[in-house]
Structure formats: C-alpha cells, structure tokens
Known about the structure:
Blueprint: H1 6-11, H2 15-30, E1 53-57, H3 65-83, E2 88-92, H4 119-123, E3 128-130, H5 131-138, E4 142-150, E5 164-167, E6 177-178, E7 184-185, E8 195-205, H6 211-218, E9 223-227, H7 240-248, H8 253-267, H9 271-274, E10 295-302, H10 306-309, H11 318-332, E11 337-341, H12 345-354, E12 358-359, H13 365-385, E13 387-391, H14 397-409
Parallel strand pairs: 1-2, 1-9, 2-3, 4-8, 4-9, 10-11, 10-13, 11-12
Antiparallel strand pairs: 5-8, 6-7
Helix pairs in contact: 3-6, 3-7, 8-13, 13-14
The structure holds guanosine-5'-diphosphate and magnesium ion.
Subcellular location: Endoplasmic reticulum; Golgi apparatus
EC number: 2.4.1.221
GO biological process, one term: fucose metabolic process
Amino acid sequence: MAAPSPRAGVTVLSPQCCLLALLVSQALADLGEFSPGQSVGSLPVGAAAQERRYLLYDVNPPEGFNLRRDVYIRMASLLKTLQKSEDWVLVLPPWGRLYHWQSPDIHQVRIPWAEFFELKSLNQNIPVIEYEDFLAESGGPFIEQVYVLQGYAEGWKEGTWEEKVDQRTCIDQLMYSEDKHGYYRGWFWGYEETRGLNVTCLSVQGSASIMANILLKNTTARTIMLDRAENLLHDHYGGRDYWNARRSMVFAQHLRIVGDEFRANVLRSNDEADKTIFVEDWTRVKAKPNMALGGPYLAVHLRRKDFIWGHREDVPSLRKAAEEIHSLLKKLKLKKVFVATDADRGDLEALRKLIPEMVRFEPTWEELEFFKDGGIAIIDQWICAHARYFIGTSVSTFSFRIHEEREILGFDPKTTYNRFCGDKEKNCEQPTHWKIVY
Ligand SMILES: Nc1nc2c(ncn2[C@@H]2O[C@H](COP(=O)(O)OP(=O)(O)O)[C@@H](O)[C@H]2O)c(=O)[nH]1
Ligand SMILES: [Mg+2]
C-alpha cells in the first residue's frame, strides 16, 4: 500500500491537513540540531520536562532474527540506564523484510512483537510498546532524531580500548534521503509514512549504555531512533541484566501451544514427565541445576544455506551430521530425532535418506501463513529446547538462543552446549556454557 505523499496532503486543502502542517512546522522550528555541548540545563523551560521519551532502534538489514533478539537485550540495558534519570520507553521495531523469511506469498512485514513474544513478560523487565502504539501515543509518524551508529573510520589503536561516542561524518552512504520538505525518508519497518526530522551519524565504540549521556544531555528530542544499533556492545554479556532481559523474552503463548502439541503427539513429550514445567511469570522462575530431564528425543539444529555456501570448515556435511546423530541416538538410548533446519529441498531429501527416522515440524500452508517464518523458527526452537539432548551448529545465533532457552529450563549443561564438528575440523571447540545470573 502506498502512503499518501506529504505533497498530496498539502494540495488537498482540508482544515485538518493545514492544522497538521502548521503543527509540524512548529515542531520543526522547536527542534535543535545535535550539538555536543548542549546540555539539558540550557534548554528552554518545558522542553526537558518529565515527559515520556521514546527510544526506537533498528539493526543492519542483512542480520537475521536471532542476532536481532540479541540486540534487543543490548537496548534493554540502555533503557534501564536511561530510566534511572528519566521516563523512557523502548519502541519495539516491527519485524519484517528479513533475508531468511523467504516463504512465498506471505506478507512478512510490519509484524508486531506480540506475534512472537509475550509483551507482558517483556514489560516485566523494561517498559516497551509496539510501534503502532508509539504512533498513537506520540501523535504522528515522525521521529525527531535518527542517529545512525557506525564505527570509527580510523579503527582503534592497539592496546588503547576506550569507550567513546563522537559525531562524525557518515562513513557509508546514508540510507536516508531528504525529501522536498526536508524530511528524511528511509526504511522505517515498512511504515512508509514515517519520516525522520534529523539524521546524524555517530561513531561509537563501547557498550550500549555509552549512549545514555548523549540521549539525556545532548538532545531534547523526545523520539529518538538508533539505527544500526548492533554497533553497540552488551553492557555486560551474561550478567544479571543480560539474563533478566533474556528471560523476559518469553515466546508467545500460541507458538508454545503448537510446539507443546507437537511434543505430545509426535514425540511423547510433556512437561510433567520431562520435568520442564513452564511458569508464566519469569520473574518467579529460578531453575535448580540439572532439574530438567527433557523429552525422549534427540534434537538437532542443522544450519545450512549461507552457512555452507562459504564452505565453512566448522559446518559438517550431511553425511557426517547423520553419522553423529546415529552415534548419539545409540549412546543416549533414544529412538527419535527431531531435526530443525533451514536446509533446501535437495538437502532435505538427502537427509531423509540418511536419517529415515527423522522427525520435523512441517507446517501446513495455513499454519505457515498464520505463524510466518519467524513463528515456525520459534516452534522449532521450542521443541529443540525441550529435548533430552541438543546438538547445534557452530556459531549459529539460532543455536545459541536454544542454549539459553535450555539454560532457563534448567538442563544439565552437558546436554545443551554441543555442536556438530566439520568433516575435517581439527580443533572442534564446543560452545561456552553461560550460566544464568538471577
Ligand atoms: N524454522 C527454522 N528456520 C531456521 C532454522 N535455521 C535457520 N532458520 C532460518 O534462518 C534464519 C537464520 O538466521 P539467524 O536467526 O540470524 O541465525 P544464524 O544466522 O544461524 O546465526 C533464522 O532466523 C530462520 O529464519 C531452523 O532450524 N528452523
Ligand atoms: Mg544470521
């Protein structure tokens, strides 16, 4: 659907449109440019009042679903830091246009977070709202300040790591362009009517919370977007805040239900027998070590596609993976293997021949249309998270998120932090165990 252009809006002389135009130009006149020396104290009275401020963000387009989930955790830390000084809320970037979401004929853009995660659970960690609620609440499709985050053109000097942020000229070609009215247009999650009022490039080096000073002191904008937010690092990877944010990312109930039904019907797996009781309120969960048993099946995540195109040494051939699966089934005295994979049709046929007993979650077209590629990926992850034993693919964030889910459920780390080795890989180092900090 094409959004009406502002030009069309101005030529149609309805009273509402003119009032809006007036308000917008007023708002524009009130806005200051980014100036590093500007402090809240020097602003006109009222501008820095205790009004709610909105933090928006986006990630480099080629990044997949599971790295994006990681960037959310970094933004949650920043929001926590901001909240110590002012009332801030994180606006959840709608999902869409992801490279891996290739199912044809399904409209996969402007997807709200509630389709994948429980908003109530997220809100128990930090205040969050969906983008559409932001539009309603903030009164219009304008983002006052867009900061495009980038590294430093000169890189960093060896041995002198310091955390810093500086306004710099943009290194890459800007993905925003100014329209006739001086508004910035670009990719705002498929909301074509959204525009930025200011776009500035910032070179950043450090953890997410280094942005706090800029947001609190160097700008009075109430709505601020950090684009390319993956340039910021974790405040403290694996620390308490990290895990609180991670634990708050509870999968949406409708996806859990489908995963649980599949577990029950196809894998004879249920929470009571598996000792994986799900508690709705994550703040009250504290898994005892090695508490979970898991369902009577082996789960594997076989990442293919772009992971094999580069002939990576740490990714196995299907034959090697099948050998490993059979040897694990024997060792673990299990009969069933659940396979989560992004393999193409050819690879799937080959897999079926190599592992005839393999079980997969294969959605009907209706299910795919309803849950979308992101939902199917979550159902796969949920089923993998409940298995007696899991083995994943080297440095896949899809596999990493399964590790975390199993950690939350209280599995013995030996049954979780495993990965396939490449056919000729010499030092097949296994994934790191990240223990929950409660
Ligand atoms: N349903 C499903 N999708 C997968 C699986 N493996 C990969 N994908 C898709 O491919 C994407 C991989 O990108 P990403 O999430 O960034 O993980 P990474 O690239 O493996 O680190 C996922 O988000 C899914 O869309 C799988 O086992 N099941
Ligand atoms: Mg990826």
